[in-house]
């Protein structure tokens, strides 16, 4: 056997020998995807040609291993995305809606910017500039979501020894633009109620009138503080109108995973959001009316449902509400506006802790920051206290 030539990368040293017909054979050992060292060889008319052919064989073998889930610094970012998504499915720790959101954000926001790079080419600077540009040209929310999925994917690359450090970790902190939670006034709530009650009803309106569920859903949102998905997931067995006040248990949400039918998820947005709330009389009245409609149904039948008895989708309710309010000249109101309104009303009467408990938050910090409209009014007792600074009359001490 001839003397070894220069080693090539991680494939080990190449050795040469002559075949029985006088040709050259190049040989080396290659560590396969399962960790086993295997002999790989290639034959050609000359040692140089045999070496070139062996390198081609090794490159193809290495590419095959990468295709089986291996990651290296030379792997493409697109391949990392495929491996990361497969790993999410293997862990199976995310709610289907969250898993779908992660994939959508990765493919729509991130992949177009990095798909042609190898992992070793993606620096902190590239990631930092991408996130800042996204925040400036799109929105803070989009940039934050892109940063999240990028960080998760690169964390997997670190665990797979493809890169040494996560480039997202050292990017600049995203600065959230200042914003205030805005709740609805009592007058605005009444305006919305009138608009919904009068939508597509009256003489000369073609087609059947609405089924009345939208206005009922609004009353339940106002009386429970529940998210739209939680309201649509309330079942017959979750409601008790025999007590005073009536109660509703919020223990699920409606989800519409991509490529799958809309269905009820057996827990809300988070497991800690499960709660039983006492509802005001106007909400109890709606719940009683819905229970009468489904009196003969099974206990797990939904309170709100389509004509076919299937779950209503959150997107359809949002779309219908938007159409109704746009027609009435009311803009900027979403289902979450009712949740903020509940939080603000409860804060004014009972404090932020009570509002947080009602909304299913573990801390009032989130409630204050995102749901309670700041109160600009200062306690009027200040006027009485400051009377001490009133100007003195002539002759007064």
TrEMBL record:
GO biological process: DNA integration; DNA recombination
Residue stretches making up the Core-binding (CB) domain: 75-158
One MF annotation (Gene Ontology) recorded for this entry: DNA binding
Stretches that traverse the bilayer: none
Domain of life: Bacteria
Alphabetical UniProt keywords: DNA recombination, DNA-binding
Chain residue ranges for the region called Disordered: 255-277
CDD domains: INT_ICEBs1_C_like
Ranges of compositional bias, category Basic residues: 261-272
Gene3D superfamilies: 1.10.150.130, Intergrase catalytic core
Keyword Cytoplasm: no
Record's keyword annotation contains Secreted: no
Domain named Tyr recombinase: residues: 179-384
Family to which this protein belongs: Belongs to the 'phage' integrase family.
Protein name: Site-specific integrase
Upper classification of the organism: Bacteria, Bacillati, Actinomycetota, Actinomycetes, Propionibacteriales
């Amino acid at each position: 056997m001839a003397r070894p030539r220069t080693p090539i990368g991680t494939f080990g040293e190449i050795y040469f020998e002559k075949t029985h017909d006088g040709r050259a054979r190049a040989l080396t050992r290659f560590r396969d995807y399962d960790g086993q060292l295997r002999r790989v060889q290639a034959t050609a008319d000359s040692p140089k040609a045999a070496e070139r052919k062996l390198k081609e064989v090794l490159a193809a073998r290495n590419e095959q291993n990468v295709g089986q889930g291996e990651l290296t610094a030379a792997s493409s970012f697109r391949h990392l995305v495929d491996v990361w998504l497969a790993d999410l499915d293997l862990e199976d720790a995310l709610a289907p809606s969250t898993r779908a959101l992660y994939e959508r954000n990765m493919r729509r926001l991130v992949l177009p910017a990095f798909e042609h790079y190898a992992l070793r080419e993606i620096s902190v600077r590239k990631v930092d500039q991408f996130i800042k540009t996204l925040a400036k040209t799109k929105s803070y929310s989009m940039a934050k979501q892109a940063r999240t999925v990028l960080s998760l994917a690169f964390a997997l690359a670190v665990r797979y020894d493809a890169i040494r450090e996560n480039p997202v970790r050292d990017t600049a902190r995203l600065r959230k633009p200042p914003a205030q939670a805005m709740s609805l006034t009592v007058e605005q709530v009444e305006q919305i109620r009138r608009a919904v009650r009068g939508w597509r009803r009256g003489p000369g309106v073609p087609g059947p009138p609405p089924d009345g569920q939208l206005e009922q859903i609004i009353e339940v949102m106002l009386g429970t503080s529940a998210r739209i998905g939680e309201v649509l997931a309330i079942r017959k067995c979750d409601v008790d109108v025999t007590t005073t006040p009536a109660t509703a248990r919020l223990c699920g949400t409606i989800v519409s995973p991509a490529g799958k039918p809309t269905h009820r998820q057996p827990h809300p947005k988070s497991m800690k959001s499960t709660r039983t709330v006492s509802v005001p009389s106007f909400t109890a009245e709606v719940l009683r009316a819905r229970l009468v409609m489904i009196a003969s149904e099974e206990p797990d039948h939904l309170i709100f449902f389509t004509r076919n008895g299937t779950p209503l989708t959150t997107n359809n309710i949002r779309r219908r509400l938007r159409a109704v309010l746009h027609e009435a000249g009311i803009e900027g109101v979403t289902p979450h506006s009712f949740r903020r309104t509940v939080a603000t009303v409860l804060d004014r009467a009972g404090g932020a802790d009570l509002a947080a408990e009602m909304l299913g938050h573990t801390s009032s910090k989130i409630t204050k920051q995102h749901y309670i409209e700041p109160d600009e009014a200062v306690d009027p007792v200040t006027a009485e206290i400051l009377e001490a600074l009133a100007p003195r009359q002539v002759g007064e001490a």
